[in-house]
Structures are given as structure tokens and as C-alpha cells.
Design a protein that fits this description.
By secondary structure, this protein is α/β, with parallel strands linked by helices. Helix content is 35%, strand content 23%. It has 16 helices and 17 strands. Strands 9-10-8-7-6-5-4-1-11 form a 9-stranded mixed sheet, with helices on both faces. The chain has a 3-stranded antiparallel sheet with strand order 12-13-14, with no helix packed on it. Strand 9 and strand 10 form a beta hairpin. The relative contact order is 0.14.
């Protein structure tokens, strides 16, 4: 096997933090707004990128993910200006994947053709459910009809790569209703589905006022029945919560899960870069609140933090991403991405193998079925045992599903 390049692939994450309304389950950095300062915000984003691009001179951006918030609230002209500005500042791969997150809604959906003309070649549509009662129960402002129309409008606009986000374990939901959501998504013939359980996160309305949710047996049935439906339809499960037709996997998220590099611009955006011959892994995060970020005008004080990841933390950081992939990872990838020898994870890997959580063969490590079911148990083997370390929680939706990068800095 050829040696892996010491410099990982490079992506770009762009955070647009505004929504029409904050959902009661959402713990992402999003803010309700009726008047979005799109032109001013795009200008600050590009000034931010001016600073970031100096750190990656000569490197090619393989993927762009525009996440939020609700990026489809931004006008076509704003997204076009953003992408034109990005092209002027960094070199893009000829086949660069450009994803934009969108929510169903007539005003937003009718922008899809314009986004495509601007350079967006992949849409991720936050449907969550095709059931009106379920949508009301989780505070969504669209209905099932709008959800179906959004997918159809995207397809009519020539958008070939479309992801539908679905959630299960919704208040009052039966396993039959969860399966019906999957069937309706599959009927659209899209190439990618994200399918994840509703979890109750701190600092959300649902955390303060928890809704009644299905019990564990019902959740397990929803999970297993949905996997069977998607795989029977030709979508391969390649990550804990991601399913795709061959070749339609999200390249941007794959780069996260393989511990690649990415620039992060926008309010609260995370970044990760590998620096120097010693392959120092550096993380950064921008100021979280849009007002604070806008006030910086991209003038150098837009960063909340930047610094190297301690070598002792790299095994867990790597595994928080790589362990989610059903293809697993190789010892060579671990060494290339962290700069550490494979021996740095040999003890927890032996423990994981003894517990039946992984298969190991010729330097390749792949999770077993049990390993995907008990991901927390697997990850905790790599956790720093010091009392100051927070416990791993791998049950929540992967942060990279929204392009936000690792929560560990």
C-alpha cells in the first residue's frame, strides 16, 4: 500500500447562523431573525477567508459545506457573491463538492435553480418528517406538502445530489410512522439520506420541557426497520447515521470522519489544520454570536480561540470521527493524520477487540455490528482518564452532519 500524504485533504465550512425560528430540539449555533444582514455578513465571511487562506497557500479545497442555521434564507445573489468570493481567494478542485443546507418552504425552494447556477451542486434538505403531526410536535414550520415539494423542485432544477435529513424517535411516533417517513423519502429517489434519532440536548427548549418519547424497544425497532428499508433500496450505510448510493457519499463529511483538514469561516465555525513537518494539529473557532462576529469585520479579532491539540488528546479526537465510519480506518491513516505511532492506540484497540467491538486485520480496524451499536463504549476506551476530562457522548447527532467540525478544541 502506498504511503498516505502527510498533508490531509482540505475542505471549507461556511456558517450562516440565522433561522426563521429556533427549533425546540436544536443546539446548533442558530439565531432567529426576520431581517438578515446578508450583504454585510458575506463581506465579513470573505474578510475572514482572506486571513484563513494565507494559512493554506498552495493547497486545493476539495469541498465546501454551507451550513447553519438555514442557509437557504440567503438570497441567490448573496450565495453567488459568497461563492465568487471564495473562488477568488482559494483554489478549488475541478470537481469540488459544494453543499448548501436548505429547509422546505416555498420561498426557499424556488431559489434552488439559482443556487445551482451559482455553483451549488449538492443540497441537504432538512425534512425531518413527512408527517404533519410529527412536524408540529418538533416545532418545524413547514408541513409534509412543502417537504415533498422542496425535493421535487430541487430535482426539477437539475440538482442531482440531494440529501434528505430524517429524524426518528419523535414525540408520539410509532415505529410504523418512522418507517413511513423513510419510505416516502426513498420514493423521491434521492441519492443520500441522513437518519438519526432525536436526542434531548442541554440548552434547548426540549431540555427544559421534555416531550414524551418512544421507549427503548420502539426506538430500536425504528432504527433497525429503517436501516433494512434503506439498504433494500440500494443505499449503503457508510456512517452511523448516513446512507448513500455508491459514489453519492458526502465527500465533505467523509473528510471530517477521516480526520482531514478544513477551514471554518462564520460565527462559531470550527477549523482544523495540519501544520509543519511535525504535523501539528491546530484547531480554531470563531466568535459564536453573529453580532460579535460581524463587529470584527474579519479584521483579525474574529477568532475566539486557536491553538494546537495536545498529543495526548489526538487519539480520542481521531476516534470521535473515524469510529463512526463503517469502513473503519487503517493504522497508516491514524499515523498520517495525527503524527503519532500506531502504538499510541494499541492498548484500547486490544480492549475493543476483546469486547467484540472491532475487527482487526493487517492494520485495518473496522467496527463490528456490536461496535456500531455501542459506540460510546468503544470511544470511552480512548478517553483521557483524568477527572477534568468530560465524558464522551457519541449518541448525539454527529457535529459534522452540519459541517461544524469536532466539538473538541
Amino acid at each position: 500500500m502506498a504511503a498516505l500524504a502527510p498533508t490531509p485533504p482540505l475542505g471549507l465550512y461556511v456558517h450562516l447562523p440565522w433561522c426563521a425560528r429556533k427549533c425546540p430540539y436544536c443546539d446548533f449555533n442558530s439565531h432567529q431573525a426576520t431581517d438578515i444582514p446578508d450583504s454585510a455578513y458575506i463581506a465579513v465571511l470573505l474578510a475572514d477567508l482572506d486571513h484563513e487562506s494565507a494559512r493554506v497557500t498552495g493547497r486545493v479545497v476539495e469541498s465546501i459545506f454551507i451550513g447553519g442555521g438555514t442557509p437557504s434564507l440567503f438570497s441567490v445573489s448573496a450565495i453567488a457573491a459568497l461563492l465568487d468570493g471564495i473562488r477568488a481567494r482559494v483554489e478549488l478542485a475541478p470537481d469540488c463538492e459544494v453543499t448548501l443546507e436548505a429547509n422546505p418552504g416555498s420561498a426557499e425552494a424556488h431559489r434552488f435553480a439559482g443556487y445551482r447556477a451559482a455553483g451549488v451542486n449538492r443540497l441537504s434538505i432538512g425534512v425531518q418528517s413527512f408527517d404533519d403531526a410529527a412536524l408540529r410536535g418538533i416545532g418545524r414550520i413547514h408541513d409534509a406538502r412543502a417537504a415533498h415539494q422542496a425535493v421535487e423542485i430541487a430535482q426539477a432544477a437539475g440538482m442531482e445530489r440531494i440529501n434528505i435529513d430524517l429524524m426518528y424517535g419523535l414525540p408520539g411516533q410509532s415505529w410504523q410512522a418512522a418507517a413511513a417517513d423513510v419510505k416516502q423519502a426513498l420514493n423521491h429517489g434521492v441519492s443520500h439520506l441522513s437518519h438519526y434519532e432525536l436526542t434531548i440536548e442541554a440548552n434547548t427548549l426540549f431540555h427544559r420541557f421534555p416531550p414524551a418519547r418512544p421507549d427503548e424497544d420502539a426506538l430500536w425497532t425504528m432504527h433497525t426497520e429503517s436501516i433494512e428499508l434503506m439498504e433494500s433500496a440500494g443505499l449503503r450505510r457508510y456512517e452511523i447515521s448516513a446512507f448513500a448510493r455508491p459514489g453519492a457519499e458526502c465527500r465533505h463529511n467523509l473528510n471530517y470522519w477521516r480526520f482531514g483538514d478544513y477551514l471554518g469561516i462564520g460565527a462559531g465555525a470550527h477549523g482544523k489544520l495540519t501544520r509543519g513537518a511535525d504535523r501539528i494539529v491546530e484547531r480554531s473557532v470563531k466568535h459564536r454570536h453573529p453580532r460579535r462576529y460581524l463587529a470584527s469585520r474579519g479584521g483579525g479579532d474574529h477568532e475566539a480561540r486557536r491553538g494546537p491539540v495536545p498529543a495526548a488528546d489526538l487519539p480520542l479526537e481521531f476516534m470521535l470521527n473515524a469510529a463512526r465510519l463503517l469502513e473503519g480506518f487503517s493504522e497508516a491513516l491514524f499515523e498520517a493524520r495525527t503524527g503519532l505511532p500506531a502504538s499510541a492506540i494499541s492498548v484500547p484497540l486490544v480492549q475493543a477487540e476483546k469486547r467484540g467491538l472491532i475487527h482487526r486485520s493487517r492494520g485495518a480496524i473496522r467496527p463490528t455490528r456490536r461496535g456500531t451499536q455501542f459506540l460510546n463504549d468503544y470511544l470511552m476506551l480512548f478517553e483521557d482518564p483524568s477527572p477534568a476530562s468530560p465524558p464522551v457522548d457519541a449518541t448525539k447527532r454527529a457535529p459534522v452532519d452540519r459541517g461544524g467540525g469536532s466539538p473538541v478544541l
